[in-house]
Design goal:
Length: 94
């Protein structure tokens, strides 16, 4: 079994290494912004395609993807998504 598979009945404290999970990224980013959970979730979901495309400036890509998002949410999600990718070993080609 690879490390990226869940086992039935396993207690899960985080997604498997090597995966990007927008819900977990959004949850972590919510601690750093007062933006609505819906906006933060949309930003977190938009972060992964931008990262996979090799966006040189993730915050700029998020501003384009979710134009009316508050800057605090854009920055929180960009920071959290990049940190997530480092921590979970997720690369743009992932």
């Amino acid at each position: 079994m690879s490390r990226s598979e869940y086992v039935e009945g396993e207690r899960v404290f985080g997604p498997p290494l090597g995966t990007y999970d927008a819900d977990w990224v959004a949850s972590a980013a919510l601690e750093a912004t007062s933006a609505s959970p819906e906006v933060v979730r949309r930003l977190a979901a938009a972060a992964w395609p931008a990262l996979r495309a090799g966006a040189p400036d993730l915050a700029a890509a998020l501003r384009t993807a979710v134009p009316r998002a508050p800057e605090s949410a854009v920055q929180a999600v960009a920071r959290t998504a990049l940190g997530w990718c480092r921590e979970y070993g997720v690369g743009p080609a992932g």
